[in-house]
Amino acid sequence: MSALTLYPANQPQNGNTFRDIESIAGQLHNIGVQFERWQADCEFSASDDADAVLKAYQSSIDKLKQQFGFQSVDVISLNADHPNKEALRQKFLAEHTHSDFEVRFFVEGRGLFYLHVDDQVYAVLCEQGDLISVPANTTHWFDMGENPAFKCIRLFTTEDGWVAEFTGNPIADSFPTLDQYLAAL
Asked: Does residue 131 contact residue 36 with C-beta atoms inside 8 Å?
């Protein structure tokens, strides 16, 4: 189940949680974040390669490419057996921005995006079928959990892909990890 929790930036223990897609999308729309659900155009299996995954969502991808001028699209997956899972997790957990907007569609699994906008923090639990688009220069971080299990389609307007500018702000340390967030739901 997807979820959104709004926190005062200085009170990570005082969140207000929304669980229905319309409320989540509406709250995120207020800060320029696109959040929607996608359906596959055709059947595919978890063992299929990236080309099959992209084909399954081609009409939705094409719509976004036309709307925003995306230049590259790929599929990333990470599981609990990945030898560098902890190093990758720590990199994404640090608050950062991008000069490009960050677009992720969860084909499988889940992850927790935190968006730090003004004096609010938006915790967005994305699960299979969710698309999130974080605007350029929005401070955020991402937690894939201690034992990651996700597959995502990523879209970029540049060929450079994922390039982060870290803020040095330790705010992420104050908020629940994905595993803690899920336990509290």
From this structure: yes
Q: Answer whether 19's CB lies under 8 Å from 123's CB.
A: no
Query: Which CATH number is correct for 3-184, 2.60.120.10, 3.40.50.2300, 3.40.250.10, 3.40.50.970?
Result: 2.60.120.10
Hey, is 106 helix, strand or coil?
strand
Q: How far is CA 73 from CA 19, 47, 69, 155, in A?
A: 29, 19, 11, 5
Which helix H or strand E contains 9, and what residues bound it?
none
Can you give the residue ranges of every domain in the chain? 3-184
Q: Per-residue pLDDT for the chain (185 aa), expressed as one digit of tens each?
A: 899 999 999 999 999 999 999 999 999 999 999 999 999 888 888 788 899 999 999 999 999 999 888 888 999 999 999 999 999 899 889 999 988 888 999 999 999 999 999 999 999 999 999 999 999 899 999 999 999 999 999 988 876 666 778 899 999 999 999 999 999 99
CA pair distance 11, 69, nearest whole angstrom? 38
C-beta of residue 167 within 8 angstroms of C-beta of residue 95: yes
**Cβ burial 37-67 (10 Å sphere, 16+ → b, else e):** ebeeeeebeeebeeeebbebbeebbeebbee
- Tokens describing residue 88: 């990758």
